[in-house]
Amino acid sequence: MKKSTVTVGDLADQVSFLEREVESLKGTTKAPTAPLYKNIPVIVSITALLFSFGTTYVSYERTKQQDIHALRAELRNLLQRLSSIPKDDVEFKHKYFSTPATVALLSGLIAQENSLLARQAAEIIRRLPKEQVSTVEYTSVGRALASIDNETAQVLLSRGAEIATSWIEEANALRTHANLLFTMGKSEEGRVLYRQALELKTKYKNFDPMTHVQTELAWATAEHAIGAREQVQERVKSVDDYVEALSAGPIKEIVKNYVAQHSVFFRGPPRVVPILPMPTTPTTASPTIPSPSIPAPALPEATKPTP
């Protein structure tokens, strides 16, 4: 077998060939590339990618809005039922007042339902964005949780007062929170919130005088529940002074009548004992018992005249 021999000329030809190839590659590299806006495949790829991102975002937002709508509908149904529970409790007590065992059973079932619905409503509020929950909803759920979960109730009531947009909403949230603090034994903190509710008349324009009176009477009720008689009288005097300072007119008369009806319990009016007429004829026949005869005292004999 013959061995192939490589001459110097062959090597020179190969080197020349390689040099030509390198030069051609250098020329290709230095050739100008087309601008990006003229590169159709790249433009199509970028457009498809952006369209995919946009479709994903729209689908996510739509799903999010549907979830929020479903949660709000569920919360609305729960609040409607929670608002009707006290009415049902009163009706059951009036209907079965003659059977205390039935009243106790129904009251226990109503309390259990209230606890279940209130906790479920609080969980929905946690899942909803803050801007999707109103002050009325915060206050309603906080009031329902007042005797179940005091910490959660305080958080909800505080949030409701913060986002309130009217004096009625804010006053209601503050009063409910203050009353809860009184029941928890934190009367001083409750008084602070009642004072804040009374100061709303300087915060809002066209403040309703009735709201101020309702706050005063609610404060008096809370003080009366803990036996603070001096505080009760102070609140009654404060509401009287407030009513007297109102301008004369129909609004003042309405407020005065409201105060008169709702403050009777605190003022303690004197009791009026009715005087019944005596019967003119005996109601039952009774045997006639002769009265014992009392002998008349003997009179001294008159002195006879001397004939």
How would you characterize this protein structure?
- There is one protein chain.
- The protein has 307 residues and is mostly helical.
- Among the domains are: 38-133; 169-266, no CATH class.
- Helix content is 68%, strand content 0%.
- The protein has eleven helices and no strands.
- The protein has helices spanning 8-29, 40-95, 100-127, 135-144, 150-162, 167-183, 187-198, 209-225, 229-244, 250-262, 264-267.
- Helix 9 (229-244) runs antiparallel to helix 10.
- The chain is elongated, with a radius of gyration of 46 Å.
Defining key terms:
single chain; mainly alpha; 68% helix; elongated; 307 residues
Task: Please tell me how large the radius of gyration is.
Answer: 46 Å
What about the largest sheet?
Answer: none
- Strand fraction equals under 5%
Computed structural class: mainly alpha
Average of per-residue pLDDT values? 81
- C-alpha geometry: elongated
Low-confidence stretches: 269-276, 281-307
Q: Can you count the beta strands?
A: 0
SSE inventory with pairings:
Elements: H1 8-29, H2 40-95, H3 100-127, H4 135-144, H5 150-162, H6 167-183, H7 187-198, H8 209-225, H9 229-244, H10 250-262, H11 264-267
Helix pairs in contact: 2-3, 3-4, 4-5, 4-6, 5-6, 6-7, 6-8, 7-8, 8-9, 8-10, 9-10
